[in-house]
TrEMBL record:
Residues 130-366 form the CobQ/CobB/MinD/ParA nucleotide binding domain. One of its GO terms (biological process) is negative regulation of cell division. One of its GO terms (cellular component) is cytoplasmic side of plasma membrane. This is CobQ/CobB/MinD/ParA nucleotide binding domain-containing protein. Keywords: ATP-binding, Nucleotide-binding. The keyword ATP-binding applies. One of its GO terms (molecular function) is ATP binding. The lineage of its organism: Bacteria, Pseudomonadati, Pseudomonadota, Gammaproteobacteria, Enterobacterales. The keyword Glycosyltransferase does not apply. Pfam families: CbiA.
């Protein structure tokens, strides 16, 4: 026995470039063109074919040659034609006709000219499809119709779920007459063809599959049978509806059309999509029951300009935003299919799944839908409203032509460090909590480039606290004791490895100096010349209490610490213990008498807190993890543009508009829609080189991909975006007007700026890796080795096998570095978010989204 798929593969392998497959409902025609098939006898040619396949197909004992091939052809209604195009023209002229795609089997057709109809002048069509039922497909379609109507669109719904049509029930339509059904459009009944208006959603109409009257029951069942055996009946009916809209027939003034499809391999899906191609909204569940990937791949290829997206229905409305490993595997498989559909022919690089993460959305179980009717938008969960808005944006639906009622709208140089960031400070819920003097937050955790130092600077400006240690970038910004201060370094060396004493002494010095930064700096400088015994006298909680007693009224201090990642001359192997000692001191303060007078706010890179003893209990209810939601991210994007004079000089009207919204932007509350509109005033709608929308690029290329394998929240990297805007501004200074294309920033300039920004961001990360990775005991050799280590990832494939990469890195260093140090270095980079294991296989790692470009790694599907 042989399967049809295997037979086709074997034939193509045995006769390269000589096999074409054509599907004409309901039969396959396999055309084999070759000089060896010169016999007039079909069976002699079939024997030659069988013998050739037998030469290759030796691994399967169940394959019996000619008998297996004949059985497969008969089983699958297939015909083999031996001959060239002349034979086809003379004897099989019906194959030359282009009848379009009529069935799922059309996916195997590589010999027909199945060009899709011209859709430029037609209203946009959107196809709602799922492998299985129970995935909220029809419910979401109806909610999306309400959303579109509220935006001012006129929306036509077509219930193409032939075997189980229910859209009229969801819309609250009690009676559907035969005139407004597919039965009438697909048959010559001599009746007028109409649309049933929705009584619950203005500007929404429905063409149902069948009428509600039972007198049409037998006709409906007959219609189901006819469309299964003659798919052109369906496609002709859809063509009629499309032409009525195009020609402006009265009652058909719609600008968006939504199709509700049957699930799985239903016969009706392909004829409808072939007649009116459009973007697909594909529904799934986190339980991985969406597993017919070849079918999904087929429907994604119907609309290359915007293939579609995925919506995962989550029954657990109380679940966290962190997805499971099982769902991540499903998401990756689905986004790989979207990557194939989006990738332009001849493109060198594919999109990796994490670059397309925005195209996989969640629709949560919503109690407002329990009454069976479609609720108003203000009654559904905020998370679902955001999903509707995101789907609208990703599908790139043009604004309606008529005026919209406002009441209905729902609303590689070193990069710029946080210490030097001159953009407006953009608040978020997280920053408001951190900058609240009365909050109990002690631990502010985040990855490199997520805004720690910028918030630290804002805390100083707002006098939230006093510096205990500032980042090294603050070295020339006032009288701050920073992490690279030579006197601070000297004191740490005096205490040797007794880091607890170091921290108690430092707190004592700050309390003694009070609010006077100059005096604090002077005390540190003087102390660096003292002996261990002299310093030890004031290195305890008791000495701090004595210093507090020197004030008439015991003063309360909030002390700010940042920059521990770059403590001068502190080996990576000692840094963890250095941090652990500070955490221990903070625990003593929080649980003792000092808690009345001393509060410490520690800004720390995420990986440095992992693995410390009892850390979960210590930081519970006292920590925040830096993350940016979509609104805060877009507000920061606008603020960065406003601060760049080189860009604003070419977009003065945009600058005026931004300034009008200054207060909203600073508070992080300018609505997403307005932010997007401003961004599209300077960025093109699409990036030609990558075939994705600019908004998708701006939202996803500057943030992590969420992952079940990450230990922490995915987040936006403001440092990377600021680098990007700075690079664009610098290129404008050189290119002038040549940097514009139709009044928008040039596509190539955008991508070039991103690559340079990523390189600058990596340069920052390298500086911290020097204090995190120990490839050599000598500091200067370690710096050189780390640079070489990073460069070795250029052109390296991601995802990659961990063990193979260890071997490659060992070869790069000619085995002069121990394997354990290489493994430790990779694990440290993973802890910092540079790499992460894949959900499918923990032995495979991949570069984090923002690091793939920085490391110049190449994505390759494995």
């Amino acid at each position: 026995m042989i399967t049809l798929s295997n037979l086709l593969d074997e034939m193509k392998e045995s006769f390269p470039d000589k096999v074409k497959v054509m599907f004409r409902f309901p039969s396959f025609y396999i055309i084999v063109d070759g000089a060896e098939f010169d016999s007039d006898s079909y069976f002699e040619n079939l024997n030659i074919l069988s013998a050739k396949i037998m030469e290759h197909h030796t691994h399967d004992a169940s394959f019996k040659g000619l008998s297996s091939i004949s059985e497969c052809l008969a089983r699958n209604n297939c015909n083999i034609i031996f001959g060239d195009t002349n034979v086809i023209k003379n004897s099989y002229s019906f194959l030359a006709a282009n009848e379009g795609k009529s069935h799922w089997l059309s996916m195997y057709d590589n010999g027909s000219d199945c060009n899709l109809p011209n859709i430029e002048e037609t209203p946009r069509a959107f196809h709602f499809y799922g492998n299985k039922g129970g995935q909220a497909r029809s419910t979401f379609l109806a909610m999306f119709a309400r959303f579109l109507a509220d935006q001012g669109h006129r929306v036509l719904l077509i219930d193409a779920d032939i075997e189980a049509p229910t859209l009229h029930v969801i819309l609250g339509i009690n009676e559907v007459k035969i005139e407004s059904t597919l039965i009438n459009y697909c048959s010559d009944l001599g009746l007028p063809r109409k649309v049933t208006p929705s009584s619950t959603i203005p500007n929404v109409g429905l063409i149902s599959c069948r009428p509600t009257s039972e007198e049409w029951e037998a006709d409906y069942i007959s219609f189901c049978l006819k469309t299964a055996t003659a798919p052109n009946i369906l496609s002709d009916g859809i063509e009629l509806i499309k032409n009525n809209i195009i020609n402006g027939v009265e009652g058909f003034d719609y600008d968006v059309v939504l199709f509700d499809h049957r699930t799985g391999a239903a016969h009706s899906v392909i004829p409808v999509m072939s007649a009116w191609p459009g973007s697909s909204l594909i529904f799934s569940r986190p339980d991985s029951q969406t597993n017919w990937l070849s079918g999904i791949k087929t429907i994604l290829n119907f609309y290359p300009n915007n293939p579609g997206l995925f919506i995962s229905f989550n029954m657990d409305s109380n679940s966290t935003s962190k997805i499971t490993r099982q769902e991540e595997i499903l998401r990756e498989n689905l986004l790989l299919l979207l990557s194939d559909a989006l990738t332009l022919e001849g493109a060198e690089d594919q999109f990796s799944p994490d670059e397309l993460e925005e195209y996989y959305l969640t629709w949560a179980y919503d109690r407002s839908l329990l009454n069976g009717l479609i609720p108003d938008l203000q009654d559904i969960q905020n998370v679902n409203l955001r999903t509707l808005r995101t789907v609208y944006d990703l599908l790139d639906i043009d604004s309606p032509s008529e005026n919209i009622n406002e009441k209905t709208l729902i609303t590689a140089t070193q990069s710029v460090s946080g210490a030097k960031d001159q953009t407006w400070f953009v608040e978020s819920d997280t920053t408001r909590l951190i900058l609240d003097k009365n909050s109990n937050i002690n631990y502010i955790l985040g990855r490199k480039g997520t805004g720690k130092s910028r918030i630290f600077k804002e805390a100083l400006d707002k006098k939230i606290g006093l510096t205990l240690i500032a980042p090294s970038e603050f070295g020339h910004a006032g009288n701050y004791i920073h992490s690279a201060n030579m006197y601070l370094c000297a004191i740490r060396k005096i205490f040797s490895e007794d880091y607890h004493l170091f921290w108690w002494f430092l707190i004592y010095c700050r309390v003694t100096a009070g609010n006077d930064d100059v005096r604090y700096e002077s005390i540190i400088q003087e102390s660096s010349a003292k002996s261990f015994d002299e310093l030890k006298e004031n290195a305890s909680p008791i000495s701090i209490l004595r210093a507090l007693n020197d004030y008439e009224d015991k003063q309360a201090f909030t002390l700010l610490i940042d920059g521990l990642e770059t403590m001068s001359e502190l080996k990576p192997s000692d840094l963890k213990q250095f941090v652990a000692s500070l955490l221990s001191c903070m625990t003593s303060i929080n649980n003792g008498d000092l808690s009345k007078y001393i509060k410490i706010k520690l800004f720390l890179r995420m990986d440095l807190i992992i693995g410390n003893q009892n850390i979960e209990q210590q930081i519970e209810n006292r920590s925040v993890e830096l993350s940016w939601n979509e609104q805060a991210q877009l507000n920061y994007n606008i603020a960065s543009i406003a601060a760049n004079n080189s860009i604003c000089d070419y977009f003065p009207e945009v600058r005026k508009r931004i300034i009008q919204h200054e207060q909203d932007i600073k508070s992080g509350k300018l609505d997403i829609s307005t932010c997007e509109d401003i961004l599209l005033s300077i960025f093109p709608d699409k990036l030609r080189r990558s075939n994705i929308k600019s908004l998708t690029f701006l939202k996803t290329y500057f943030r992590d991909a969420s992952s079940a394998m990450q230990e922490h929240k995915a987040t936006f990297y403001p440092r990377l975006f600021l680098n990007f805007i700075t690079e664009i501004g610098q290129q404008f200074e050189v290119k002038k007007e040549a940097g514009l294309d139709h009044g928008r920033i040039l596509h190539s300039l955008i991508m070039d700026a991103y690559e340079k920004a990523a390189a600058g961001f990596l340069n920052d990360v390298k500086q911290e890796l020097v204090f995190a990775i120990e490839l050599n005991d000598d500091y200067h050799e370690n710096v050189l080795n780390i640079d070489k280590f990073i460069q070795s990832f250029s052109s390296h494939i991601t995802p990659f096998l961990f063990n193979d990469t260890v071997d490659k890195l060992m070869d790069v260093f000619n085995n002069n570095i121990s394997e354990s140090r290489v493994i430790d270095a990779l694990n440290r980079m993973k802890a910092m978010g540079i790499f992460e294991p894949t959900a499918k296989d923990a032995s495979k790692w991949r570069a984090g989204r923002v690091y793939k470009s920085a490391l110049r790694m190449k994505y390759l599907r494995r």
